[in-house]
Design goal:
Largest sheet: none
Strand content: under 5%
Distance between the termini: 10 Å
Structural class: mainly alpha
Number of strands: 0
Helix content: over 70%
Order of helices and strands: HHHHH
Number of domains: 1
Number of helices: 5
Radius of gyration: 18 Å
Length: 74
């Protein structure tokens, strides 16, 4: 199922059930900041420089926010 199929159905639920569903979904998402919390400043800077070098060399292509959101929804 896709978000486009699920969302209209979920929005028809009573508020209490929507709240429970939203809380359940939220809890299932890993905290993206917890991954970076254990990283030293030196490691974070090295990663940022490596990512920048990948972009500058053309090894990877930049992705707009809109394109990222489209891919995540797909």
């Amino acid at each position: 199922m896709t978000v486009d199929q699920i969302a209209p159905e979920a929005l028809q639920l009573p508020m209490k059930e929507r709240v429970l569903l939203a809380a359940s979904l939220w809890e299932s998402i890993e905290d993206p900041y917890s991954l970076a919390a254990g990283r030293s400043d030196e490691d974070a800077i090295a990663l940022a420089l490596a990512r920048d070098a990948e972009l500058e060399s053309g090894a990877v292509a930049p992705l707009s926010h809109n394109d990222l959101m489209k891919r995540l929804r797909a």
